[in-house]
Amino acid sequence: MTVVAVVLLAVAAAAGAVAWYAVEHRRPEATTRTWLIGAAVPVTLVTAAALFGLAGDPPGSALLNVARVAAVVTAITGGSLVVTALLRLADRGTSTIAEDGVTGDATASVSDPQTLRGGTTIGALERLAVAVTILAGWPEGIAIVLGGKGIGRFPELSQSAAAERFIIGTLASVLWALAAVGVVVTFRT
């Protein structure tokens, strides 16, 4: 059963990378539904891997190392899909019609990558750092990662859309990274 869990985790890493590339490459015309479908792939695979991991015997060291690498890659690739899908959901229903008849947004677009430039790259690095600190047995490292990110973004957080994007993106990113490496943690029980 553990081998199946590791294979599912590796497939989640590969599928997350392919889906991330495919959807990100079409970002301007990608709908919220497209992002949600893209995110559903790694979420489903990670969930299945966790269930098989709970039901299996502890893996050998080689298989455990493969699982660790797959979990880190899954955290990075699948996280971008999950975070962007949630940010797109956060934007739903916020459009308003301005006095000049132009459709605007009451809070600016939370899902617009320009709201906090570099967020995709920072998010991927954040998930990498969170995954590695957990796998290294040093969960306190998450506080350092999040503290550094908060300090670095502090000047931009006075805008409500930026603050909203920061909070949603950070929480979704960290929770996804924890879920991905949580599969490996299930092997230790």
From TrEMBL:
Keyword Transmembrane: yes
Transmembrane segments annotated in the record for this chain: 35-54, 66-87, 128-146, 166-187
Keywords: Membrane, Transmembrane, Transmembrane helix
Official protein name in the record: Uncharacterized protein
Record lineage: Bacteria, Bacillati, Actinomycetota, Actinomycetes, Jiangellales
